[in-house]
Amino acid sequence: MTRRAPSVDDQDSRLFREAIGDVRPMQPVEAAPGKPRPAPHPHMRDADEAAVPAELLLMDFDPADLEVGEELSYLRDGYPPKVLRQLKRGQFSIQADVDLHQMNAAAAQMTIAEFLAECHHEGIRCVRIIHGKGLRSKAQGPVLKGLTDRLLRRRDDVVAFASARAMQGGTGAVVVLLKA
Fold first, then answer.
1. Which has the closest alpha carbon to 169: 131, 116, 134?
2. Which of 13, 66, 99, 147 has the most CB within a 10 Å radius?
3. Per-residue CA distances from 43 to 40, 49, 52, 56 (Å)
4. Calpha distance 180→168 (Å, rounded)
5. Where are the beta strands (DSSP E) in 71-131?
6. 3-state secondary structure of 117
């Protein structure tokens, strides 16, 4: 069942107009201007900057021990210094390389051992190991860089190693010279 709105007759309309009185049309009003937006503020940057002093106090290692930009170099006893100079200058051709990025220390240690064993088996003499610079290692410093340094110094088949030249990875990679 639909309901109908009551109809307005002429008498009702006349009574309404008498009760209201004279009307005048309203002038159009301009909308108020919008509130200006505030300038952006880098809240996260401020929070990061404020957290730096606290993080520096919590360091578990001495940054002087191993700086991110520190170059690695090693020459086994009994070999002339000329060999290390040639390695640093890039005078040996890199025949193979391995990338340790995204690996944990255990996986990287196993990868290095397998890689060097395979290189020795194939007669490869000069290799590059990309360990990264350790920029995301936080307080413990560059983990894979330090691990690579320690492992290579202990191996008998390593004659020398040095941080790669800038175009080959810089301090994020090491070039290794193996025994023939």
1. 131
2. 147
3. 9, 10, 15, 21
4. 23
5. 73-75, 96-99, 126-130
6. helix
Give the pLDDT confidence score for residue 78 in this predicted structure.
93
For β-strands 158-163 and 73-75, DSSP reports them as antiparallel
Q: Where are the domains of the chain?
A: 73-178
Distance CA 8, CA 11 (A): 8
Under the phi-then-psi rule, with left for phi > 0, alpha for psi from -120 to 50, and beta for the rest, what region is 141?
A: left
pTM above 0.70, yes or no: no
Written as one letter, the residue type at 174 is: V
What does the pLDDT look like over 11-37, one tens digit per residue?
A: 888 888 888 888 888 888 888 888 888
Q: Which CATH architecture has domain 73-178?
A: 2-Layer Sandwich (3.30)
Query: Residue 176 is which amino acid?
Result: V
Tokens 């023939």 — which residue?
180
Q: What is the pLDDT of residues 99-129, one digit of tens each?
A: 998 888 889 999 999 999 999 999 999 999 9
Distance between CA atoms of residues 152 and 160, nearest Å: 9
Q: Find tokens 């051709």 and name the residue.
A: 93
